[in-house]
Amino acid sequence: MVNSDHKFPLSSGGGASSGESGKTLLCSDGASLSDCDDAPDVCRYRDELEVLRQQVVKDPLTGLFNIRYFQMALEREIERTERSGGALSLAMIDLDHFKKVNDTWGHEVGNQVLQTVAGTLVKMTRKIDVQCRYGGEEFAVLLPSASASVAAMVGERLRQAISRCVIPHESGDIRVTASIGIATVTNLDDIAPERLTDMADQQLYEAKLSGRNCVRGIGANVIDV
Question: Which domains, ranges and CATH numbers included, belong to the chain?
């Protein structure tokens, strides 16, 4: 479900490593190690390292990136925007009245809702976008090279897609809505990562005040969707 474009390297070396016998023990490109007596152990350790890497950067429930990865990606994208120009947008997404879902149908159903929404975020955004579970029922999507107007359209598309999600239940289909706050910066803004997050959070708060199930944004111009 999760975008695979964002990866951390597991090996700091390039090429292959060899022992005194001249046999290849480990290749950074994942080449076959069948000629090595320790190949099964090396492969197992490599698989275990990959599992650990996923656990460090992924949310176990939704499969999205977690807040730790989000913070690193945000810093990286701001630096890239400052170097290359253009814009960077952030969408903060909060499910409306989610506590009622848990209270009415239970946490297992609530988890199904979160997983469904997570899948929708991935499906409705680009591979270069970074989709994260920010915490609880709140999500964040980094939109590299997206202007304020483009981000507003993406936010509205996400809002509509979430509202169309259906979670089947024996007592009837369950539907949810989301409030979305968007903030946009350019390479001229010289902004700190936490400032961009605060701006998007403030717009999310405005969306809640406006009755929920809507998008509010700020960038070069105020966006009212």
Answer: 67-224 (3.30.70.270)
